[in-house]
Each structure stands twice: as C-alpha cells, then as structure tokens.
Amino acid sequence: MENTTKKYWKGIEEYRNDIEVVKNADKEFNLEDLDGGTHRRDFLKMLGFGVAAVSLAACDAPVRKTIPYLNKPETVEPGIPNYFATTYAESGEYSSVLVKTVEGRPIKIEGNKLSPVTKGGVSARVHASVLSLYDNEKLKGPQKGGADISWEDLDKEVMAGLSSASNIRIVSSSIFSPSTKKVIADFQAKYPSAVHVTYDANSASGLIEANKTSFGVAAVPSYSFDKAKVIVGINCDFLGTWISPVEFASQWAEGRKLVSGKDGKHDMSRHYQFETGMTTTGAAADYRAMIKPSEEGALLISLYSKLSGNTIGNSTVNPEILSKCIADLKAAQGAALVVSGSNDPAIQTIVNGINSLLGSYGNTITFAQKCNLRQGTDSEVNALVSDLTSGKVDAVIFLDTNPVFSHPMGGKLAEAISKVKTSVSFADRADETASVCKYIAPAPHYLESWGDAEPKTGSYSLQQPTISLIFNTRQAQSSLLAWAGLDSDYHKYLKANWKSNILGGKSWVSALHDGVLTSGTSENAPVSFSGDLGAAASSISSTKGGGLEVSVYESIAIGTGAQANNPWLQELPDPISKVTWENTLNISQKTANELKLEKGDWAKLSANGYEIELPILIQPGQAHNVVSVAMGYGRTGAGKAGNVGANAAPFMTNFNWTANASLEKTKSGYTLAQTQTHETVMGRQAVIQESVLSEYVKNNKAGRFEPHIATSDGLVKPYTISLWNGHEKQNHSWGMVIDLNTCTGCAACLVSCQAENNVAVVGKKEVARAREMHWIRLDRYYSSDADSEYQINPSHLREMEIASENPEVVIQPMMCQHCTNAPCETVCPVLATTHSSEGLNQMTYNRCVGTRYCANNCPYKVRRFNWWKYFENEDFDFHMNNELGRMVLNPDVTVRSRGVIEKCSMCVQRIQGGKLAAKKEKRRPVDGEIETACSQSCPTGAIVFGDMLDPNSRVSKALERESEGRAFHVLEEINVRPQISYLTKIRNKDLADAKVAGAQKEEHHETEEAHAEEEHHG
Amino acid sequence: MLPKKSKFSFDGTFSMARFALTKKASIYNRDMYKSHIRILLLLLLSLSAAPLTFGQGSADGDPALGEKLFKNNCAQCHAYDDAVVVGPGLKGIEERRDYQWLKEWIQNPAAVIASGDDYAVELYEKYNKTQMTAFQSFGDAEISGILAYVKQANEAAPVAADGGAGTAAAATADSGSSSVFNIVLIALLVIMGLVLVALLAVLNLLSQITKADGGEIDTRGFGERISGGLKNVFQNATVRNAIVVLFLLFGAKATFDGLYSIGVHQGYAPTQPIPFSHKLHAGDMEINCAYCHTGVYKGKQAGIPSASICMNCHNTIKQGSPNIQKIYTALETDQPIEWVRVHNLPDLAYFNHSQHTAVAGLDCENCHGEIPQMEVVEQRHSLTMGWCIDCHRQTDVNAKGNAYYDALLEAHNSASSENMKVEDIGGLECARCHY
Fold it and tell me: Where in the sequence of chain B do the CATH 1.10.760.10 domains occur?
C-alpha cells in the first residue's frame, strides 16, 4: 500500500512535540486521575466482595408492577407510537413538524413533508425543542415577585393593574400566528392604550425598513435560492441562521445537486459569500472573501457602482473576487440573488438597488408571498426603550421575548421594567426579563399548546397539544383573553377563528391532521425600486469602523439563547469551530499574532464601556482585526445547563457590531471543549474527495481518488482482493449515500440522532477529554495552502496541518460505516459486535465487556465508550438525572450503562419496525417508508437511506448512476467495504482558483503510485 | 404534577426507561429463588447418583434429569399419568411403543407421520391434527431420562412416601414433589452407605482369614478396625486428592449452574391485587386473549387491560363480589390497579408480540403455557435467551402467503431441502432483539 510512509498526528500539539504531549506520551488518555486509584489487587478484592454481595442480595426477586390505564384512550396502544402534526413557531423560527408520542409523551420531532415551506426539514434547534418540554427548571405555576400565587389571584391583580393603566405595552417577538394577532387585537379593544411592540433579538429590521422605503412594503419578501444561478451573500448566514434557514437550505441545495451520467444534471449555481466570521454558509460557498463588518456597506457600494456603471459613492473595498462576482451577476440577469444580513437600512437599500438592477424581483425575490418570520423594527423598539426608561409606561407584558438579556440596553431595561407598576411575563422560567417583572404567568411549551402560524402569506400551519399540561401553566393567549374579559378557552377561539377566516369551507379535522393548509396565493405584483441610493451611500460612508471591531453573530446551536437551557444544544458542537458549552472570542491567526494571543488563552474584550472575558478561538477564515462573538450565551436566568459563556448583546450598538474594541490576554492554559482539534485533512484524498465543476463536466469521476494495492500480479483495485469471506445478503442490504455537495453542516442530523437513540450528554469537562457520545460527527476540514504542494515528505506535514487564511471547507457527516469487512468485529473478544445478514454492524451492549479493542481498531473512529454511567448520576446532572427529563427517552432503544461501547446502529429499531409493519401487511417494505433519524431530518436531502438490494430504492438508483461518477467509500484502500457511500464535493469554481484542484491531484496521484511501486519493488 | 395520561402509561415493559444494566453483575441483581438453590442441591445429588453409562429405555434413564426435561418441555401437553392434557398421557408408554419408535417420534414426529406409520397417523388424527413439537436436540440420555421419570412417577404415585424400600419413590407433578424426591435420594445414599459397610465387613473378614493364615491376628475391636481402615483410606494421598478434585468440580458446576439460573423466574406466580382467574375467563368462558390484551396482535406489548375493559362485563356480572368491587373503587377513586408483572424480560432485550402473533401466527400458549388452565398465572417457561434461540432454531418461518418472505423462501428452497427456519433468515442475529 502506498501510504506506508505517512505518519499521522492526533493534533498539531503532538506534531510540535509539546512538552505536555511528551510527558503524557505513554498515557493513552492524558488523564491525571489515572495515576494511583484502583490497582489490580484492589480490583480483585472488590470483585470478590462484589460477587459475594451480589449473591447475598440476589436471593429475592423485586416485584415489578404493571399499571394499566383506568380508561384506555381508543387511539393509544401501549408500545405503538402515535404521530401528531404540529408547528414550531417561536422566536422567529418556524417548522411544520410531526411529533412522535409514546403512551402520551412526545419523544421525537420529525419533519412534516406536507409543508410547502419547510418541506420536511427540521433544524437542530427544533429537534432539540422536545427536550425543553421536559426541563424541570421551568416554573411549576404562576408567580408574583418570586412567590407562588394562584391563577385567580394573579388574574385579579393583573386586571386591576391593567384597568388602572393608561399606557400599556405588549412586547413580543414576531408573531406570525393569525389567531394570536386576533387575541392581541381583542385585548387592545378592551385596553385601548395597549400598544403591541415587536422586538426580535435577531431582527431583520434593516431589511424591512429598506423595503418600506424602496418598494413601500414593510416586510420580508420570499426568496427563491433554487431559481438563482448566482447567489451572493454578504454577512448573511442564510444556510444556518438567517430568517428561514431550513427553507433556504433546501432551495439552495436544489441548485447544487449534481447527477452523473449522460442524462444527468451537470450544472449548479455559483455561490459567492463575503463575510466576517466563518459560517456554514461561507463554508458551503464556492468563492468566499473576508470583510470586516464596517466594510459591508462599502463593498455593496462598489458592487452597485461597477454593476450599474453609476458611481453612487466612494469605496475602497474591492476584494479580489469582486470583479469575477460582478461578471457572473451580469451574466445571470434575472437569475441572480444578492442577500445581506445587515440591519442597516442603508445597506439593505443598496442591496435592493442591486437586486432590482439584476431583475431579481419577480424571479428570485417576490413580495407576493411575504415572509412573516421577522416583523420587528429597530425604530419601534427604540421608542419602547425610551418610553420604558422615561417611566411613561405603567403596564408592560412580555410574550416570547427576553429583551433584558438580548437587547444591547438590557441593563437599563431591567431597571426601567422593575419600576413599571404592572409588569407581566409569559416566560416559562424566571428568565432575565421575567425576574424583574412583578408577575410571571408561565406559558406552557409549544408541545402542550394550541396555536397556529402563517409563516408566509397563504401558508397556514396548525399547532396542537401532544401532551397534557405538565405544570400548572396557562397559554399566553388564554391569559390575554381572560384579562380582556373574554372566554379564555383558546382552543375554542382558535377553531372559531379558523372556521370563519382561514379554512374557507375546508375541514378543520383534515387541516389538523395535515398540520398545514395552503390557501390561494396572491398575484405576483411587480414592484419598482424607488430607494434613495445616494442618501444610503452617504449614510454608509458616515458609519465609521476602525480599530478592532466586534461582530456579534447567531450560532447554529444556541441562536438567540431562548433554548439555552437545553443540554443537547449546549453539547452540539458548532459546525465550524467544534466548540461546545460556551461562546468564544473568534479571531484570525494574524490578529492573534499581533495581539500576542494563542490557543488556550482567555482574554478580556471591551468596547463602549462593556467587557466580557472568554477563551480565544483562532478561527481560519476569520476577517483580520475583528473579534466574532456568538450571541445567546451568558444567560443568567436560563438554568443549570444554560448559564454558560458571556453575553455579547451589549456589543451590538452599531446594528450587530461595534468598532474600536480592545482585547487583552487574562490567562492561559485553557482547553476548549472541542470535538475536533484537527484542522485539515492532511492531504488524505481517501477521506475527502473533491473537484471543481469544469473538471466534473469533463469527467464525472473528477476528484475521485482510486487507490491501488500492489500484488504479485501488479497493481489492482482494493476490492478485487480480500482476506475475508464477506457476508451473504439475501433479504436487505441497508445503506446510505451522503452527498457532500449539499450537506451544509446544519447539525440537524446530529440532534435528531441524539433524540432517537438516547445518546447521553456528557458535559463540558468530558467533551474536553474527547469523550463526547454523539453517534454522528460532522467532520470539518479546512484546506491548507500546503495541499497544492502535497507530497509524501515529512517536511511538509507541519504546513499541511495549518489551515489557509481563508480556507475552503468541507463538512463530512461521519457515522459508523457498517463495514462489510468490519475491523471492529474481528477484534472483539466476546463477540459483542457482529455482522447481520442485512449489512448492519451490530452492537450488543449486554455482551460488551468494555475492552475498547473495537474502538481502537475502527478506522473511522466512530465508536463511543461509556466512561461513566450517564443516567441517574449526580455528576452528569442533565436530563437523564431527573424523572421528568428521562421522559424524552425512546423506549425502543436501550439506555447504555457504564463500561460499554456504543455507536450508530443505522437506527436498527426503525428498520425492525418498518420490516414488521411490512410483514404484517404481507408485503415488502417500500422505499422511503423506513428512514433513519439522520436521513429523515436532513433539510437538504443530503443523506439518503435505503435498501441497496431493492433496485427501485433511491439509494440503489443513486449508486447505479454514481458508481462511475461521484460515489466513493472513505478509506477505500483498506478494503473494509462500507455500506455508506459519499458523493464527491464539487465546487463551482474556476480550476485556477481552486485550493484543491482535481487536475492537480491527478498528477500527484500518478507520482504517488509510481512512488509506491518503487517502494514495493525496492 | 405529572398528567395522569402519562403517569398511567407505563404499561408493558415499563417503557419509560429501558435502562440496560449491562455488563455488570447488577443486571443479575434481581432474584435468585430459593427453588434454584434447591435445584442446585438436587443436581449435585443426582449427579452423584447418576449411572455413568446411558442405555436405552427407562431402566437406564436418569429420572432426575428426566423430571427437569419433562417439566420444561413435555408437561404443557402431556401428563405423566393417563390424563389427557393436549396430547395423550404417558403412563405405560413403554409398553405401548418400543424405544426406537419413541426416539424417532420425539425427534421428528412429522417424519414419522409422513412415513405412514399407522399408530402415528392414528394418534395425529385422534388429537385434532395437532402435531407434537419436535425435540431434535434430545438424545438417548434425555429420552431415557424422561421415560425413567414417567415410570418412576407412575410407580411412586400409589406407593407414596415409602422411603425405606430400595425402589424409587414418589415424585409427583406438583411443587411438593421435589421434597419427596430429596427423601428418595437420601434414602438411596443411606442404602449405598449400608452396602459400603457390608462390603467393608466382608473385606475385613477376608483379611482376617488371610492374616490368620499368617498367624497374626488383629485383636482390635470391629469399630476400631473400621475407624483405623477409614483413617488409612483418608491418609491415602490419592484418595484425598480425588476427593478434593471432585469437591472442586462439583462446586464449580454448582456455581455455574447457579449463576446461569439467576434471573430465571420459571414458576413465578405472584399474588395479584385481584385474584383474577385465567382459568375462569380464558378457560371456562373461552374469552379470546386479545379481547383484554388488546395490543397482542398490534404492537410490542400485549398490554394489561384497563379497568374499563373489565367493566364491559362486570358492570352487570358479579357486581357484589368484593374483588369486583376493587375495580369499581379503582375507577371511582381514579387510582389504577397495580398488577404484578409475571413475565419480565430484561430491559436490554426487545420483544415484540405482534411479530410472533400476527406475523408468525404463534399461539399464546407457545410461550405462556396453558393459561386457560391456570387459576393463578405463572411463568411457565424460562424466558432465557437460550430458550428464545432454541425456538428460533426449531420453528419454521410462517412464510406462506406473506409476500415479504417470497424471495427469501425461493432462495432458501433452491439451496436446501429443509424447511426455512427462523434461524435461516437471521433470526439468531444480535440486533434482532438487542438495540
């Protein structure tokens, strides 16, 4: 084999031969507590005592009770799950979902494929929301000033307060529920002084205000990324966090899909991204440039000027790729889309100008269907802040919003709210805002509530309770109705509202069953641009950046922090930085060198009189002289899991950034809880195979790495020889195809898998020891500048581990590959891991004795060891340590105990369930009927699961087309023959610009092979 | 607090948390029955008493082994006397058929019927064409053991506790039988001891004669000589070593057998909060199992019926009975009835009723025994993994008319002349039950 002279390192620390590494070289796990502790003799003694104790204790059988229903509901059969369609519509995020309930408790969120908006995609946060239902740190009932109060007393007191108030404010995040809007209108009818203020922590205020001045429509339009041939994003993470990422990701993927073969699809959209920090959108882009937040406006001015030929302002920002971008945009007239995530109306005005110039309106952007997910504007929020601080307001109600935490002026707001005569929050816990309110009228979780949503004009969605109320809570709508003196039965209210205003004669029951309802869309009325570009340009040039800038961004896991107390989300590694459990100060390597900071340091970031202290993260692709910090962390009122990190909101003075900050090192020697410390793929083409579109069009196998093995008959392909007998598969052969081109790294699969398979949360300390339990890893590899000079030469290895300043990024979902010739199976001394006749690599927990030989022998490193008992253990005080939190567990999957290995089972419980359903109906399973948790939840359809023996399955068809195209097995040369295939990553990039080019690789290939051959003969 | 709906739902496998206490011995931390210790003792004793060679027929069989086998495998359908359960009573079976025929029949009844054997065909017709389960794993030792047990049990029945005689004594089918059997074994030991003493006496006499020839006469008393002889025997290193080795071997076997039986609840028949009689409901009244156990053809759990199902009949029938009143009280006070689970699988094993009932077409009696005859339900089978696996090895897949299996059946039939067993389509694979 040709790779014999290669040497690999666990991380750059090991390569550098850091003193720590050398010291711990003979210790496998670098753990201080392995010294001393239990010795072999002690172990034997304890074993002896243990056996004796067990024998003594084993003489009596515990009595297990079985408690049936008194009155079994007709639709509930113990052991058979029910699915209910409902809607996640909170904090500006929307998803139509199916909820799996077993014996009356929701345990899993799945996408609703009937939804025209989300099309069955579900984000990581929505997947995790089921765990928030069972958060035992929520309030158990209404409270007044921290003490319990009954609902009757609360109603009486609040109503008295409201009737005596002359200036009432209802503050909420964007409400896109038609019935809730009606409730608020009814409330306002009773209390005419009530003003509804929409405050979004991640608002699209700039966009809405710019649309108002440009087109007279104060709304977010609908975007169609699928119709765009050229997409330009400017600090706009539309695949991860911007407005409606699940919807946009599936549209974007539509334009990025490639199909090999003669009748295939060989074209894809081109995606430019200009951004400050590295986001998943930037990682997925073809061309990416780094800009400082202060340069956004200038970049757009120069883009507009060059595109139109009309200079609207001076701009010195001209990234290298801008001229190429302009040429592409010009060529894609009518099929181009430029989006910006800025909240500066001036910037958004110029974006609108560019899009009208490109003919995007009516093609890739439409106001016919408005997107209702963001409605708040800064102007009304600023008015609220001044009203509150001036003491004008004498009653305020907070609904699904937490401005004290998320608003830059949070501290002042807290002071002001505490002085308001009557203040009520509907928060589920005493969060930052609720704790300064007089009353907390806790609203139940969305899975316990009735509701509806209209995420887009004409697209309706219903929400129904999937469990009866867990605590003594009441829906916010019911409270508002009660205070307005109306019937507080919101279910009745909702139904009546739908019957008279939405259903239009259609059936309520079928709408409830489907979860969604589409009524006719309005005409695509043409809009004409009437924005003042000159004024916008001058406003932009008056905004000055400079010095060290701070950019506050929304992370995929935590978002605005509403669900911060969700341990699944806290332990979800950021798809790019791989950091868990905290936010970090992200800076580029160059900035770090200038400021004399390095990995493991903590630093104090201060600007505008506010400072936070956080660990430093050196992030490839980060713009220089900018510190990026994620919002949503630094909660103080979230709970045990959520109160981590530091709050970055006060830095959002200049929209979402601020200038002239300072960064000072405070301490060093800290280990970030990262799940991947390796930066690049070290030139291992056997792992990541990629090419560019122009090469792919010429040759569908472009970028494929085809290893050969030297035998006495010369070089042969690995799969032509084998030491193994293989496994006969007669019935099924389960497998997956994962398209690296459409995987955005959104991590929905990871959380979905965690929920489905009872994967334990281990906490920050254990993650830092590389003991996380996730069954799917999203391996993120940066390109290295050394890649193009790649040779088998140890002197290059140091460079190869250093990521480029602005790297290309590949994200590869990696789970158990279910090898046909599985190395793990061979080494298990107790046959705890064996092969099934359906192609699955089975893991039998009750047989495992914990030698971890299998994990050591796994070439993909996907096996996880239970170092501890993670349930009912005070040291792991997450959801599995309390009775309520354990309600989320899937009864079909064993909760693993200490000392056993676990890994992806390819959701064998779902496979078995699907097969049984088919057998009962005396038929074969139909493709698509059985889905794994990850394939079910992928918003872009990048993961396809199915039976490879069924010629009509999507998997079989994809493999048939791609076997002479993009399909490859990771580490093909070791001949383990995985059941999981990947499709090559193809970028729509010119060959000359590509950091890792297929053609260049080809050449090296040959030299490598020649080299290997030489060695072999030598 | 928690909503009633979810609280009451921890039905069946107590699904809320299938905590697998894997690997550690704590998994076995459940329940070793005193009866197991008794079985261990029994085994020890029976091993020492067992003949070393196995022959053919009851004369050479080990009745202790036979009893165990009979109770585990035969008693569901056969009585040892002439009572008919499902199949004929086995009293006098050796007079009716010869050993060879019996062996063939037990190992593969289908083949004997197919061969056109008159007696077999007649038997098959007589018992409603219910074919006996095949016990291919039974060899001469097992079969003769069962025959010996049948013979012994029938002989013992009239004689009852006639302990002194050399004949084998009673071992009836009820749970008291083993204590009687213990007495028998002890009696046997006593007899063997007497024989040993007699032999020693003879030996002593002979040696006296030979010594007398030599002129030297042992003047010690009989007792002294016995103890002296024993002392010599025990001072012999070989004998001592042999005893130690034997002791260790038996000890090891007892330990292992004991460990294997931990967590096996065979025969477990707990007292329920309401003495519900399956004999009355399922037996005499012939109420279909699925009428109450609604999930049995649909899902993983058969389900314990909700009180409302009881009320379907008991709102008119036997209202006054104090036990029926308990159901009324439960409904009135909103307090569910807490039944005691009889059949407990460890949480690490996934079992789905509908796979076995709806797909495989098995009867409930296959695993639960003759429930319609049980006043108090007891766990009839061991429910161990070995027991599951045995059945998966022996049972034909109910593939006929099920399109799911068509291709599999075709492939199997083209490669083999045997019927397609569960084992042949992956029924022994770990991830069928463990995940």
Answer: 34-179
| pLDDT number for residue A57 | 57
Would an 8 Å CB–CB cutoff place B315 in contact with chain A? no
Whether the Cβ atoms of residue B55 and residue B194 lie closer than 8 Å to each other: no
Across the interface, do A68 and B11 touch by the CB < 8 Å criterion?
yes
Where do the domains of chain A lie, and which CATH numbers do they carry?
2-26 (no CATH), 143-203+376-502 (3.40.50.740), 220-362 (3.40.228.10), 545-667 (2.40.40.20), 690-1008 (3.30.70.20)
Helices (H) and strands (E) in chain B, counts: 19, 1
The chain A residue lying nearest B337, using CA atoms, is A67
| CA B249, B254, B260, B262 torsion-angle sign | negative
Check CB contact under 8 Å for B298 and A470.
no
Contact residues for A776 (Cβ-Cβ < 8 A; gap 6+): A749, A750, A753, A813, A814, A815, A904, A934
Residue with tokens 């009325």: A525
User: How is residue A662 written in tokens?
Assistant: 């300072």
Any chain A CB within 8 A of the CB of B435? Answer: yes
Altogether, the residues listed in chain A come to a count of 1018
> Which residue from A266, A225, A231, A268 is spatially nearest to A249, judged by alpha carbons?
A225
- Check if B253 contacts A (Cβ < 8 Å): no
pLDDT, tens only, A603-638: 999 998 899 999 999 999 999 999 999 999 999 988
CA dist A773 and A761 (Å) reads 7
The residue that leads in pLDDT, A5 or A94, is A94
Q: How far is A91 from chain B (nearest CA, A)?
A: 27
The C-alpha R_g of chain A, in whole angstroms, comes to: 29
Q: How many Å apart are CA B96 and CA B90, to the nearest integer?
A: 10
Length, in residues, of chain B: 435
Q: What angle do CA A471, A474, A477 make, to 5 degrees?
A: 155
CATH topology of domain B34-179: Cytochrome Bc1 Complex; Chain D, domain 2 (1.10.760)
* C-alpha torsion angle, residues A72, A75, A81, A83 (rounded to 10): -140
Q: Is B295's CB within 8 Å of A909's CB? A: no
- Round to whole Å and give the CA distance between B263 and B348: 13
Portion of chain A with pLDDT greater than 90, in percent: 61
The β-bridge partners of A100 are A83, A108
Q: Is the entire prediction scored with pTM above 0.90? A: no
Alpha carbon distance B399, B389 (integer Å): 19
| Touching A: B residues 69-88, CB under 8 Å | none
Of A76, A842, A920, the CB nearest to B358: A920
Q: What local confidence, expressed as pLDDT, does residue A27 receive? A: 66
DSSP reduced 3-state for A488 = coil
Decide: helix, strand or coil at residue A528: coil
Is the distance from CB of A860 to CB of A836 less than 8 angstroms? no
